[in-house]
Amino acid sequence: MAATPQVLVGLCPCRAPADSVTLAAMAWNQALSDARRLDPLGTRLPAGLRPGEAEERLATEGFRLICGADEAGRGPLAGSVVAAAVVLAEGFELSGLRDSKKLTAQAREALLPRIYKAALAFSICESSPSHIDQMGILHASMDAMRRAALDVWQQLREKGLSLPDVLVVDGSLGVPGFALAPQRLVVKGDDRCWAIAAASVLAKTTRDAQMLRADKEFPGYGFADHKGYGTAAHLLALRERGPCPLHRQSFSPVAQARPPIQSSLW
């Protein structure tokens, strides 16, 4: 994996105090409710766009400098959910850049140095399994995306560079609590918007690297193979070994697994 330029990126984990969980959950529920009330006709780009066409559509609205945001890891039973936000140079296109889930690991790794080089700024943030359990996976993933976007804006301010005109988000739900720029939503945006596709690759490669390290720290679950998703092998390991500290205790298959064996497994 290519070295990450430290000046541009820092992994920013969630640090939500346990005693603030109830109030935070209430605030996020309200923010998500507000996000769902956004006028789809005013915020969502049309379906069926070809790769890169999202940028062209946004340019017609006067949005030239775009920040794309995406996440990886909502579905797994273990590990953090990771979000990335990326601002690419205007007019940037990269052959082979698309939804990270459709690329091989080798293809994603090959794209990293090219994304780093083309990025004016980017940030990668995560929400830990404990944060996911406290706040719910949707809240936690949106919170990571919000923090990544805020960090990108801060980086650009510190560099004296122009700020993005718009935050473009993969999916059909805007990022609650982000008000520094208008938001536009692109369903399957990681296949249709260069900036979202770049964010998808950064989030996916970061999370995969985390799960490779987790496989060494907590052997026996197969994290290196399934990256925490609920495969048959993973579910079997859960039944036999019980959950480890990286498992999301609020997810049903984990909650139904027996308590972890009290031994020297970790």
Fold and architecture overview:
With 266 residues, the chain is α/β, with parallel strands linked by helices. It has one domain: Ribonuclease H-like superfamily/Ribonuclease H (Nucleotidyltransferase, domain 5, 2-Layer Sandwich), CATH 3.30.420.10. It is 43% helix and 14% strand. It has a six-stranded mixed sheet, with helices on both faces. A hairpin with an 8-residue loop joins strand 2 and strand 3 (81-88). The longest helix is centred in the C-terminal third of the chain and has 24 residues, at 194-217. It is elongated. The relative contact order is 0.20.
Residues in helix, %: 40-55%
- What's the domain count? 1
Secondary-structure element sequence?
A: EHHHEEHEHHEEHHHH
Main sheet: which strands, in order across? Answer: 1-4-3-2-5-6
In the CATH hierarchy, the architecture is 2-Layer Sandwich
Say how many strands there are: 6
Low-confidence stretches: 1-10, 14-24, 38-42, 261-266
- SS content category: alpha/beta
What's the number of helices? 10
* CATH class (first level) name: Alpha Beta
Task: Please indicate the percent range of residues in DSSP E strands (runs of 2 or more).
Answer: 5-15%
Measured between the Cα atoms of the first and last residue, the distance is 28 Å
Question: Can you tell me the CATH superfamily?
Answer: Ribonuclease H-like superfamily/Ribonuclease H
Indicate the radius of gyration in whole angstroms: 19 Å
Which geometry do the CA atoms define? elongated
Here the CATH topology equals: Nucleotidyltransferase, domain 5
Q: What profile does the largest beta sheet have? A: 6 strands, mixed
